[in-house]
Design goal:
about 350 residues, mainly alpha, globular
């Protein structure tokens, strides 16, 4: 159920409103929210539009089918950019951001900020990497095994070989359209829509912080339901196989959405969920066990999970990402997390 902004936050912000006009702007927005029903409807519409527009080139514009995977993905990139821009503009009018005086403040409401960039980028990656402790051990074990197989006498030569391989790998990925999809377009556009637009809309709709963290990823997961249609109708998967694949994906996106929503609300910076999204796409699913590591990966994964849970709140302390919280104490509900 929607809940009002905590009274302690209101009192704290009100006491300093006369001293800082930025706080006054945020306070004005937080005390004049849209209705919860309008917020939910708008978020559902943004999620639907993000997916529906992907099919507009052939269904609405009647363009011929793309001749290659590259042209197909470039079309989708363009559609994702358009849908993101439409969501941002819609959020601008929905939340009445035109009442704010300066452009940086408007972007700041959506988490698009230029301050505290290195904190917003580095700390979330370090925190997220703890989940992949088992993956790092497994990959390290494979590298050591490969190094032993090639022989220590050729170690200096191997360093050069691995350097060239790394260079070739980077160049190949730079030309790979799927790499651009997974590591650039999808993370940026998805976080822009489902975090920067959806979360402020729900906050302004009066929903509680914890409710938003756990419920807003539903919109994110629903945006992946089109994968079921593609698997079932286009790739001719059986209903049960497509259902299981998409069901697993939806479960993962919900859990991932909890985390990135948490990051966005805690840091108030869109960079944080974006870098976490890219990092998780690069790493894939965490490795929990590996036979060749003799249990080392399992121990590392367990230790990493414990460390992640222990550092989750300290590593995302809002004071680390905001200078005097920049008047966002009410808007992003930081007072309820400290």
């Amino acid at each position: 159920m929607p809940s009002s902004v905590p009274s302690t936050a209101m009192a704290s912000s009100a006491s300093s409103t006369s001293e800082n006009p930025l706080i006054s702007d945020h306070l004005a927005l937080s005390t004049a929210p849209i209705s919860g029903r309008v917020a939910v409807t708008a978020c559902a519409a943004m999620a639907f539009f993000y997916v529906a527009i992907l099919y507009s080139p052939t269904l609405i514009l009647r363009l011929p089918p793309p001749a290659s995977l590259e042209s197909f993905m470039i079309r989708r990139f363009a559609c994702a950019v358009v849908s993101s821009a439409v969501s941002v503009i819609s959020c601008f009018f929905l939340l009445g951001l035109g009442r704010l005086d300066d452009f940086p403040t408007i972007l700041g409401v959506l988490g698009i900020r230029c301050d505290h960039l290195w904190q917003a980028a580095v700390f979330p990656i370090l925190l997220t990497s703890l989940i992949y402790a088992g993956s790092f051990v497994s990959k390290s074990w494979k590298l050591v095994g490969r190094w032993k197989d090639e022989g220590r006498e050729n170690s200096f030569c191997s360093v050069g070989i691995y350097g060239r391989r790394c260079k070739d790998w980077v160049c190949a990925y730079a030309r790979n359209v799927m790499a651009w999809r997974n590591y650039v377009v999808a993370p940026i556009t998805e976080e822009l829509v489902f975090r920067a637009c959806v979360i402020p809309s729900l906050l302004c709709g009066g929903f509680g912080t914890y409710s938003i963290v756990f419920l807003s990823p539903i919109f994110f997961s629903l945006a992946h339901l089109n994968h079921f249609l593609e698997l079932y109708y286009q790739q001719k998967y059986s209903f049960m196989k497509a259902f299981l694949i998409v069901g697993l994906q939806l479960g993962y996106t919900v859990i991932f959405g909890w985390y990135t929503s948490f990051l966005f609300i805690r840091t108030g910076n869109l960079i944080s969920p974006i870098v976490a999204h890219i990092f998780c796409n690069v790493m894939g699913l965490p490795v929990l066990s590996s036979p060749r590591t003799k249990g080392t990966a399992t121990i590392a994964a367990a230790a990493g999970l414990v460390g992640f849970l222990y550092l989750l709140f300290p590593a995302t302390n809002p004071d680390m990402y905001n200078q005097l919280r920049d008047g966002c104490r009410c808007w992003h509900r930081y007072c309820g997390w400290s």
